[in-house]
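Quick look at the format.
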Amino acid sequence: MGSWLIGGATAVTGLCVAVCLWWLSRPVPVEDLPPVIVAERPAPVPPPVEPARPLVRPAVATVAAPPPVEEPAPMPADEPPPSEGKTGTALYQRGTKPLKRGLVVPDDFELPPGYMRHYQATDNGQPLAAILMFHPDFTPKDANGQPIPIPENRVVPEELAPPGMPHKLLEIPVEDEDSQ
């Protein structure tokens, strides 16, 4: 009983779709279309007429000589130019940013607000353990609410480390110049 009901519904749907497509695709004579009302455009308003200005000759401008170009300082004879024959990361000299020595932060130690882990790597790309630093947006305060002076490099000294953190200093490995 249900299959003839589904079949009948499908046939009726198909018939409706066919009639709609036929109705929409048939040509409609122009006379049968409703009239279109077009609003008239207002006439353009001419720009206001400005009174004539008397002719004034512009003053003759003098052009100053350009300032002398300074020659760059000569490079020392024993040093090649920094980018000569180098590309990519080879443009950067080794050891230009010294490694910071500080308290090692264990990976599982949860840091209180105001502290952060600072990750470093050697010139050879060897990762080092993270050290403890003050967050740039944090200023530690004493019991009276007065700011505590901190080192310029923001590395946390042992006496200002959060409670419960082990006090182990980072050992910075010594690198050979030849091991590149």
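Next, a different chain entirely:
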Amino acid sequence: MFSESPEVSSAKSKKAAKKDRKAAKKAAKSDEHDSGLTPQKAKNAVKVAKIVIPAVGPALAPLAVRAAGTVREAYDRYQARKIGVPVEQLSEYSGHGGGLLARIAGAADGLTELRRAPQVTNDDVSFAQHAQGTLEQLTASVRAAEHMPSTRRKAAHKAIASELDGLESELLRRLGVA
């Protein structure tokens, strides 16, 4: 067999190295275009959209409306569960103070139960009357706080919540729950 001269083998290895670098550069360039959005890909997408949307849009519109309704219904159920009221009454307790208004309504129902309780005393009736007036003031305060700047509204809601906490605990004590 014949052997190649060192210059020939060196030239071949340089060519091979150059060929490898060129292939790597080409692969990197094709990866760059495959992952990104090129002007040609954008034009093709617009062409496809011009054909597909008018054809499929009318068929998908009712599904989109139904999906939006389902999402809204699920959100309403979540909000109602969060503030502790039935979904039908959710609109009555809207706004930033909705949760407080729901708590006030629950306390008012508790006062009604206290008045109807068989073991009610004159002291309980007096408490119920005083607490009813307090609840009316708290309701007015929550509604007035809706129009305040957020920092003042949050401070007002915090004060209302603490007042309501005390009233609820006393109501529960008088009902014999706590």
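The two ends are 105 Å apart (CA to CA).

See the schema section for token definitions.
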